[in-house]
Amino acid sequence: MPKICILDYGLGNIQSLANAIKNIGFKVEMMSDNSSNNYDIIFIPGVGSYSAASKMLNKEKIKNFLNKKNSKANIFGICLGMQIFSSIGEEFGLSEGLNFIPGKTVKIQDKKSTLILPFVGYESVEFKENKKLDFIKEFNGKKFYFIHSYIFKPDNDSHVLSTTNNQGVRYCSSVIKDRFIGTQFHPEKSGEIGLIFLKKMINSLS
User: For 91-145, what is each residue's pLDDT tens digit?
Assistant: First the structure.
């Protein structure tokens, strides 16, 4: 049984994610910034602003927990939890990210300025093949739940795991680099397909 924890830093949809993980047969612990435990998988959820997450997650104790104490753990970010993987974010001014995956989090825009934000609802996700996640193509074209007004733009296209098209805007909807994996969509809010995705993801990362 993998050791799983959810990083409880004040901006996450903690309970729904915990319930989803328990529903698919795994145990999960909550973690505050003074935790001394080691884990196989650490989830970073997120609902709120990049600037607020930046202040909370760049605390020395949390950075030590993620980068030193759990230097071999797989880190999985969801929504804002994925966006904060980036180097910098634009929401409410420039803020420093965790810099796990070089890139920038920016507001969704198009040339016509006719977008309806936030993007909300189920959208199709187009996954690339990935050696670490050999199951991932099974979910190509499946629909997952999104709610967001900002997107993560990795500097390197090789770190883009999937893309999604909404209102004519194609954007990065999941990322991967080494032990860092993130989804813009919420698997825990995506019904049965989301639970299947979570279970396969946890099994693959364990």
Answer: 888 999 999 999 999 999 877 678 889 999 999 999 999 999 999 999 999 999 9
CATH of the domain at 63: 3.40.50.880
Amino acid at 77: G
In sequence order, which ranges of the chain are alpha helices (DSSP H)? 14-23, 50-57, 60-64, 80-83, 191-205
Q: Is the pTM of this model over 0.85?
A: yes
| Catalytic residue list | 79, 186, 188
**Overall number of domains in the chain:** 1
CA distances from 94 to 112, 140, 172 (A): 25, 34, 20
Give the structural domain span for 53: 4-205
